[in-house]
Fold:
Amino acid sequence: MADWHVVRERRPPHRVAARHLTPEQQENTVQTLGYLDAGTGSLIASVIVGGVAGIAAVFKTFGRNIVAMFSPSKRAALKAEREAAAAAAAADAG
Amino acid sequence: MSAPEGSRPDGGAPDPASYRDPDSAVFRLDGHILRGLSERGATDWDRFERSAAFPTLSDACLIPRTTSFRGSTPLSPRGTPWSRVIEHEPISTITYPYEWPFAMLRDAAITELEVLRTALDDGLTLKDGTIYNVQFEGTRPVFIDLGSFAPAEGPWPGYRQFCETALFPLLMHAHLGFSHLPLLRGRIDGVPAEQARTVFRGRRAWKRGVFRNVVLQAALQRRLTQSSESMKRDLAKSGANLDIAKATAKNLQKLVSRLEVSKDRSVWSDYRTTCTYTSESAAMKRAFVEHAARGGTPGRILDIGANDGEYSVLVAPHATQVVACDFDELVVDRLYRRLRAEGPANIVPLVIDLTDPSPGIGWDNRERAPWQQRMRPDLVLALALVHHLSIGANVPLPMVVDWLRHFDSRVVVEFVDADDPQSQRLLANKPPGLFADYTRKRFEELLASRFVERRRAEVPGQPRVLYDLDPRT
Structure:
């Protein structure tokens, strides 16, 4: 499952990115923004425009995140799960 | 990304429209249109040249003829030597999407998607999707950015750019009647999804193609912050492979092909039927214009105020290319459709308001050059135009004549006297006495200091005169 960051506030994506990406992801973004930034949302939209197979691929990758985007309770559940995982990882590291 | 600009100096300076891709840039050297490629760019080019897509696209004339270039060339804009240099056949006149009527923009979009589909069939994709990668040779769209072909992986990276510069403007025009011209002229990168979303609220969100491409894309852009490169990898793992990119391109092409504008009567659309020419005077005018076009060596003819293109069509057999400009979008759209269906194929119709022609936009105001800088005519036709500029748009007569001189080419100009019914119609909307200097005598005085007259002819039974002029040096 890809690690998605669901953002509730409406603000320009670049401002959101700086605040919500993990340091690793920020690093990754800087390194991989090539000649053209295809745009993450646009990439997924283009796959969905590809029809049934595209929609299936998107759901396979991000099904739970998509549901969370439109449901506050699922969003809260997903967030809690992530926090628990992060806490467990921190405990392991400690 | 790259447009072989005709008006640039010939010394190998990079084309101002070709700086965004570090792996490929266009420059002009001693009359050649050249493209420098980095090592990676050269690898991609080799892959494209060896593919079946290359001959397919070349044979269909969808890409310009391209060969290797052996001569010495300047360094890249980043100061490094090029790994490889290739030469493109030049485009006669560079034009931009904010000068194309609806049907032209739609054909350009269909062409770009056709090129993409052909590339995808061979495991290649287009790195970007800007509609500026399409130019028109006459009425034929040509995909000019041959540095854009690269091995395909996952979804089409040019989708967002294609949406912003072509699909959203087309959707807004087709569904809402909102002309794409000011949208594209106002921002070189087109209309962002978020902005398009604001005009497709409520039931409009369910118009053809809007939900997936506008609503969904805007929502996803707003909510996702993962980097696009890692997203590409995640999608690829889940099976978003080449077949899905192919389906995206196919569905987009189907959508774009089905978009259409609602047809309305425009200001000029009935001009030819209401204008004041009798058959005798029309025949005389046609003979005068054709004589001028036939007289010189065949070259580029610029028809300003072309209306339905009657005179552009008349002179087309005597020219390599005619650029037909008019400010009425609907008339130009009709002209383009007629030319596509019936020919002649060497006319490029453009929507140009002569009192407000396209400015220089983009980086350093030079990325997309102003209209007049791109027009390098051998002959200018300015028929039934001066009274519209001088009386209709209040441009003083000396400024109109100076402007005609700026083209630095042979000019065929028609002067319509203030007594003519067409001039009277324009004067009827203006306070009396404002245009006392709008006389044939004054016009001829102004011409005499700027041009050398070859011939003139009075239109029989009408207060109109035609002049065939050479610029005075």
In short: The first helix of chain A runs from residue 13 to 20.
